[in-house]
Amino acid sequence: MADSANFALRCDNLHRYLGQDDARVHVLKGVSFEARRGQVYAIVGPSGCGKSTLLYLLGLLDQPDGGEIEINGSKMSNTDDLARTAARGEHIGFVFQFHFLMLEFTALENVMMPMRKLGRLSLPEMTDRAHSLLASVGLGEKTHRLGTQLSGGEQQRVAVARALANQPSIILADEPTGNLDVKNSALVFDLLTRLAKENGQAVVLVTHNPEIAQRCDLTRPMRDGLFV
Amino acid sequence: MSPNLRIALRFLTAKKRAMLMSLSCTVLGVGLFVLTQATTSGFEEFFIKTILGTDGAMRIEDKIQDTLRQMTAGGGSDFQISQRQGLKYIEGVEEPKLIINALKDFSNVSGAAPVLRGSVLVRADFKNESAQVFGISLEEHLKVSDLGRQIVQGDVATFREQPTGALMGRVLADRLQLSTGSTFILEAQGQRMRYTVSAIYETGVADIDKMRVYVHLSEARSLLKKPSGVSFVQVNLFEKDRAPQNSIQIQDVLKHSAKPWQEREKSWLSTFRALRISSAITVSVFTLIAGLAMFNTLAMIVLEKTKDIAILRSMGYERRDITQIFLWQAGIVLAIGAFLGCVVGALSTLGVSYMPLPISGIFKTETFVVSWNIWHYVQAIATAALMVMIASLIPARRAARLEPGDIVRGTAQ
Ligand SMILES: Nc1ncnc2c1ncn2[C@@H]1O[C@H](COP(=O)(O)OP(=O)(O)OP(=O)(O)O)[C@@H](O)[C@H]1O
Ligand SMILES: [Mg+2]
């Protein structure tokens, strides 16, 4: 079907329980969602409704207790760790809610890390690409700073640049503008939307910022483990 | 550089002090292993050199009696054993010339010399001592022993020229207060003959130096009243390690019992071996500690780096990569430790070889004897590698098993 080819990401009836025994919580209660290439999606909702949990599942970082996930047309739920790891490296760029950088490495090295693993580019090509990505998030001058020498907002922007490194077809970002001022929020958001349009990437972001949500192609409000 | 190695190097520098502990234990373990092996096998090799230089690589003595062989011919394997036990020997070598000639056909034999041995009483002016007289044929004997180099007073040439000359062990000479040029009497079978001390030798082996008097074979024959035959033929070999195989062949062909030095000196050799192994085990404790320290350090790094592990996994790094990153860290420390350990081992071996340590009794030396052998280094490194790598496998695999989802939620354990 021509339609399904346009979907970079699909999930159907996802369930996820978290916690053990008495503390077991039904966090996701049958979530279905799909993301087309070239579109930017916003997932919004109150704190604790399960946005991050969903994003981890979509990013293949976690496994659902029920339901199905499809990445670029191939079913990913119930595949082995190796296949999911390969898909993460090739198709998915993930920005964590709590901007995770490898602090002993410079901004440049952080951005190059996924490229080195994928190994599609030569070293000078990787370096060039990392430099231009960092420049596009406004950090062209700080490429050789260690993670520890960057502010929270700067770290977050490096994490965004890193998520874009392998030109993934799907970008999942958990509050990518959470720590940023107005100017840098706009910078990061504009970069993500521009890439979505130019390269036909699907962008899914979680945000608490109504302004940003409004500027997305589609907004999916979530409450209590379900889209409403 | 592979991305995993690059990451490993950076993680490593984050926990310098803990890694240093593991490193120093590795250095100590490898260094001490090398040192103890160098000294124990140094003494062992020196002992072997001494006994080979004195009693040769092989002794052919006692003719094997043929009759019993035929009696058990045709039996099963059990009979073979009883046949071996039932071997009968006739003491001594009756036809040394034939034997020595036949030995020339063995390519590994470098020399063979007849020896006639007997118990004697040595009478000097002040004192008598019981001893053993060894009748030798000098030129041949020099080819199968280091006797020429063991002379500490006088020289072999004097012995060669004096028909009634004798070579006396240092300890025996001291006891009897004899020096070169003095005369003494050997008494055996009720007859007494006078000899002159041509030279005094010292092997360092106390049992030999206090017991043996070497005289010319013809003299020994008349003293011991043995006009023909000898007690044994002393054989030297080019490749000493092949003595056991050679002795089996020789025994089969010549029908005389042939005893290789490994069998002759069995008790001392196994003592040295036990010493070498036990010291290896003892110093392996250090490598064990190095392994435990590595285990501890890596477990700490894994705990500290769980977020980095989640990030790496989210970027497409496989479980295998995570395992590798941690094994690389252990490998790097191990490699540095092994290298430094070898240097320390070599330097301390060198240092110890100059340390004064007068020993005589089973051999004679003034300083520590060391052996330089590449295998000591290989074994030391292999032991350390085994301990450290096994110890690091556990935390490395644990790190690889962590689920990225659990880590980011903070529920990883
Ligand atoms: N290990 C756990 N055990 C039990 N419940 C958990 C566990 N982790 C998370 N939860 C619960 O799952 C729910 C969803 O969490 P999640 O992190 O997805 O929320 P969120 O929508 O991302 O919230 P926020 O906007 O604050 O980031 C929350 O109610 C949380 O309490
Ligand atoms: Mg969240």
Strand and helix layout:
The complex is a heterodimer of chains A (228) and B (413).
Chain A: H1 2-6, E1 7-18, E2 25-36, E3 40-44, H2 51-58, E4 66-71, E5 74-75, H3 81-91, E6 92-95, H4 107-118, H5 123-136, H6 152-164, E7 170-174, H7 182-199, E8 202-206, H8 210-215, E9 218-223, E10 226-227
Parallel strand pairs in A: 3-8, 3-9, 6-7, 7-8
Antiparallel strand pairs in A: 1-2, 1-4, 4-5, 9-10
Chain B: H1 3-14, H2 16-55, E1 58-64, H3 67-72, H4 77-85, E2 89-90, H5 96-103, E3 109-123, E4 128-136, H6 138-144, E5 151-154, H7 156-161, E6 165-169, H8 170-176, E7 183-188, E8 191-201, H9 206-209, E9 212-216, H10 217-224, E10 232-237, H11 243-254, E11 256-260, H12 261-264, H13 266-304, H14 306-314, H15 319-353, E12 356-359, E13 365-367, H16 374-401, H17 404-409
Parallel strand pairs in B: 4-9, 6-8
Antiparallel strand pairs in B: 1-2, 1-10, 1-11, 3-4, 3-7, 3-10, 5-8, 6-9, 7-8, 12-13
Bound molecules: adenosine-5'-triphosphate and magnesium ion (MG).
Model description:
The complex is a heterodimer of chains A (228) and B (413). Chain A is an alpha/beta fold and 228 residues long. Helices cover 38% and strands 26% of the residues of chain A. Chain A contains eight helices and ten strands. Chain B has two domains: 3-53 and 268-412, no CATH class; 88-255, no CATH class. In chain B, the strands form two sheets. Chain B has a six-stranded mixed β-barrel with strand order 3-4-9-6-8-7, surrounded by four helices. Mean pLDDT of chain B is 87; it is low at 68-83. Chain B is 58% helix and 20% strand. At the A-B interface, helix 3 and helix 4 of A face helix 1, helix 14 and helix 17 of B. The structure holds adenosine-5'-triphosphate (ATP) and magnesium ion.
